[in-house]
Amino acid sequence: MQLDRRAFLASLAGTACVLAVPKSVSAAFKPERFASARMDDRGIYSAALFDLERGDLRAVELPTRGHDIALRPGGSEWVAFARRPGRFGVAVPMDKRPPVWFESKPDRHFFGHGVFSADGRLLYTTENDYDHGRGVIGVRDATGGYKQVGELDGHGIGPHDLALLSDGRTLVIANGGILTHPDSYREELNLNTMQPSVAYADLETGDILEEHKLAPALHQLSIRHLAVAQNDTVVFGCQYHGTDEDMPPLIGFHRRGEKPVTVQMPSTTQAAMQNYIGSVTADAAGTIVAASAPRGGLITYWDVRARRFLGTCGLGDGCGLAPTHHSASFLLTSGEGWLATGEVDGTMSRQSSSYHWDNHAILVA
Amino acid sequence: MTILRSLWLVLALALIFGASPAQAETDQSAIAKDALINVIRPGYAAFADATTALDGRVQTLCDEPSPEALDAAKKAFAEAVKKWSRVEIFRFGPVNRHRRYDRLFFWPDPKRIGLRQVQKALADRDESVTLADTLADKSVALQGFPALEYLLYSDGAEKLADGAPEIGFRCSFARSVATNIGRIAHAVTEGWRDGADFTKTFLSPGPEDPLYHSPKDVTLELFKAFSSGIELVRDQKLGKPLGTSPETARPKLAALWRSDLTFPNMVGNLEGVRTLFDKGGFSHVVAEESPGVEDSVLFDINRAIKILSAVDQPITEVVNDEALRTKLEALRVALKSARDTGSSMIARGAGLSFGFNALDGD
User: Fold this and answer.
1) What are the tens digits of pLDDT across the range B66-123?
2) Chain B within 8 Å of A314 (Cβ-Cβ)?
3) Are B249 and B189 found together in one domain?
4) Contacts of B267 (CB under 8 A, 6+ apart)
5) Residues 330-349 of B with CB under 8 A from A
6) A89 — phi, psi (to 5°)?
7) Same domain, B346 and B257
8) Across residues B323-351, what is the average pLDDT?
9) Would B21 be classed as within a structural domain?
C-alpha cells in the first residue's frame, strides 16, 4: 500500500472543514493540538497527541485501555492513565524523549484521572485502596520519574475525576461513591448504600476543606466527572444507578461556600440522555461547559454563570470533550470514530477517523 | 424508559459479545463492492457531469451575458447542488484528500466567515480569485458552492445578466469557482476509479493498510455514512435552523438559503442515504437480520423525502409557519426512528461493535 498512515491522516485532516471554521480558513492559523486515549480497529489501545490538520503527532501504544490525559503545566509532557482497574500511567514528552512509565502501588489501582500541581512538579491521581474500600489520591514526583512520594485521603469511595482550583492549592474531587474491587473487576458492590460527594481538599495537608453530598433521594446519583469553570465554579456530571424510570438531574454546579445546585434538562433531552454523563469540560473562556451523554448520543451545553441548559448536538457515542482556542467551541470525539468541532449553538462539523476515541480528550496547546 | 433502555442494553451487549448467525454470513466485501459500484461511483459521476455543465453555463454567462444566460447558470447551479447533495453524506475517500470536501462545501458556517471573505474579495477586487489555478490555494470558503451561490444569487447578482463592465470581476470570480468545483468533482471521480489507491484499500483492505484493516472496517465506514447522513439532515440541516420556536429559529444557518435550495439539498442527502441503504447492500443485511424491517426504514426515508420535496416556501418563511413546523418536527422524529432502527439492525447484522464509550461505565 503506497499510502502511509501519516499521509493518510494528513489527507483526512485536510477535510478539516469541517473543523473549525476560522481555523481552516486562515493560513496563519496554528491548529490546536489535542491528546486522547483510543482504540484502533484491531483492538490496540493507544494515547496520542494530534491535531485536526495533520493527524497524529505522537502516539504511544498502551498495554490496556486508557482513560483521561493530564497536561503538565509548562507543556513539556502529557500523561495518560489506565482505565480502572488498570495500574499504569505514562508520561509522554512533547519532544522526542522516550515516554516514562509508572505504576500504582501493588495494593492500589488507578481510577483513570489525574491532575498536576500548578508548578508542574507533582502529579495527583485518583486511586483505589481496594482492600480497605476507600479512595486515595496518589502523589508522584514529576521531576523524578514519577516515583510515588505520598498519598492523601480521597475523602470518599470511588474518587474519579479531580481538578485544581485557581488558588493552586485546593483540589476538588468527584467521589463517585461506588465501591469496587479488582477481584470482582468492575462490579458495583454498594449500590444500595452509595453516597457520592464533591470534596475539596488541601493539596499540601490533605485535609478536607469542604464536602457536599446530594439530597438523600439522589444518593444513587454517582458524581463522576467535573470541570472547573469561571470563578472556580465546579460543574459536575453524574451517572444514575437507581431505577430507569427516575429522571434525576445529571448536571450540577457548585462554588465553595455554597450549596450544590443540580439542574434539570428539558424532559425530552433528559429522557434521551439515558441517565449517563460521560465527560464534562469548560470552554476556553470558562463560561460555557459541555457535558457528553454517550448513551444518548448527545452533547449538551451549559451556561456557567446562569446555571442554565443551553442546548444539544447529536453525536453517536460522543464522549470526549476538549476546549479549543475559541470560546464556546469544543473538540468532540466519538467511539464511532468521529472527530468534530461543535459550537455552543449546536452546529457541528465532523471528520471521520479510524479510531474509537475514548472517554476524554484535552487541549494541549 | 425501562423497556427502551433494556432493549438498548441487550442490543448493545449483543453487538459486542454476540455473534448472531446472520453476522457470520454477512459478506462484508460484497457490501463495499455494491456500495462502490451501485452508489458511490454513479453518484460522483453524476455530480462531475453536472459540474461540467455548470462550468460551461457560467462561462457562457460571462462571455455572452443575458437574462437567459443567468437563468441557465442558476439552473445548472441547482442541478450541481442536487447531485452533490447525494454524495455529500460520504466523508471518506478521495473527497477527504486535499481538503476537497471543505473546498466544495464549506458548511455550516455559523460565523459567516465565507460570506465575509467573498464580500471582501469582491470589495478588494482580489484578482487571485478570478483564476481557478490561484483560487485553489485561497481560503476553502471562497472555493465552492456557498461562494458561488453568493455570487449568483445575492444582491447585485441580477447585473450579471447585463454584462455591465463593473460586473465583469464578479462574473470572473464566479467562473473560476465553477471551474474549481468541476476540477475537484472530477478529481474525486478519478480517485474512485479501478486501481486507484483508495479503491484498492476500500475493496480489499488488509492488516497493513493504514485506514481499513479488514472489510468490516469498510462496512463501518459505510454504516457511518448511513447514520450520520440521516443525523445531518435531522439535526444540522433541519433542527438548527428551525430552533424550538419561530422566535429561536435561525433560518440563515440553513444550507443554501440564498438560492432556495435548502430543501432540495436535504432531499438529495436523504436520496443518497436511501440509495446507500437500498443499493449498497445494507437492506439485505437488515432483511436477513429481521425481515420486513428494511421496508419500514425505507418507508420512513421515502416519506421524509416526499414531505421535504413538497415544501414550496423558502426556509426563511418555513420557520414561521406553525403548521409546517409541526409537520417537520414530526418528520424529525420519523428520521430518528429510521436512523435508530436502520443503524441497530445493520450493526447487528454486520457484526459491528459499538458503544465503546456508551458501555464503558466510567
Assistant:
1) 999 999 999 999 999 999 999 999 999 999 888 899 999 999 999 899 999 999 999 9
2) yes
3) no
4) B82, B85, B305, B308, B309
5) 343
6) -135, 155
7) yes
8) 91
9) no
DSSP symbol at A150: E
Q: Are residues B272 and B178 in the same domain?
A: no
**Cβ of residue A356 closer than 8 Å to a chain B Cβ:** yes
Neighbours of B111 (CB within 10 A): 16
| Total tally of structural domains belonging to chain B | 2
Among residues B161, B193, B225, which one ends one of the domains?
A: B193
Q: Considering only CB atoms, which chain B residues are within 8 Å of A347?
A: 108, 110, 236, 240, 253
Tell me the shortest Cα–Cα distance from A122 to chain B, in angstroms.
25
CB proximity B6 to A under 8 Å: yes
B81 found inside a domain:
yes
Same domain, B187 and B314: no
Domain housing B87: 42-193
User: Closest Cα partner for A271 from B172, B2, B317, B256?
Assistant: B2
Q: Please give the pLDDT value at position B362.
A: 87
The reported pLDDT for the residue numbered A8 is 34
Whether A17 sits inside 8 A of B99 (CB atoms) is yes
**C-alpha dihedral, B227 to B233 to B239 to B242, nearest 10°:** -170
Give Cα A364 distance to the centre of its chain.
Answer: 13
| Candidate from B1, B106, B221 with C-beta closest to A245 | B1
Q: Give B-chain residues touching A295 at CB under 8 angstroms.
A: 8, 358
Q: What is residue A41's predicted lDDT score, i.e. its pLDDT?
A: 77
The answer on B241 and B270 residing in a single domain is yes
Residue B1 lies in a domain: no
- For chains A and B, count residue pairs whose Cβ atoms are closer than 8 Å: 176
The pTM of the whole model exceeds 0.90: no
Report the number of secondary-structure helices (H) and strands (E) in chain B. 18, 0
Q: Exposed, middle or buried by CB within 10 Å (0-12, 13-18, 19+), for B312?
A: exposed
Q: Which of B137, B165, B193 is the last residue of a domain?
A: B193
Same domain, B231 and B142: no
Are both B154 and B217 inside the same structural domain?
A: no
Mean pLDDT by 10 residues, chain A (365 residues): 34 34 45 95 92 92 97 96 96 96 97 98 97 96 97 96 97 96 88 95 96 94 97 98 90 97 92 94 97 95 97 94 96 95 93 93 96
The pLDDT value recorded for residue A29 is: 54
* Look-up of cell digits 485544581: A164
Same domain, residue pair B229 and B179: no
Q: What is the mean pLDDT of chain B?
A: 91
ipTM reported for the complex, 2 dp: 0.78
Q: Do A248 and A258 meet the contact criterion of CB atoms below 8 Å apart?
A: no
A chain contacts of residue B357, beta-carbon cutoff 8 Å: 278, 294, 317-320, 334-335, 357-359
C-alpha B17: how far from its chain's center? 33
Q: Does residue B108 have a cis bond before it (omega within 30 degrees)?
A: yes
Q: Do the domain assignments include residue B117?
A: yes
For B15, the grid coordinates are 453487538
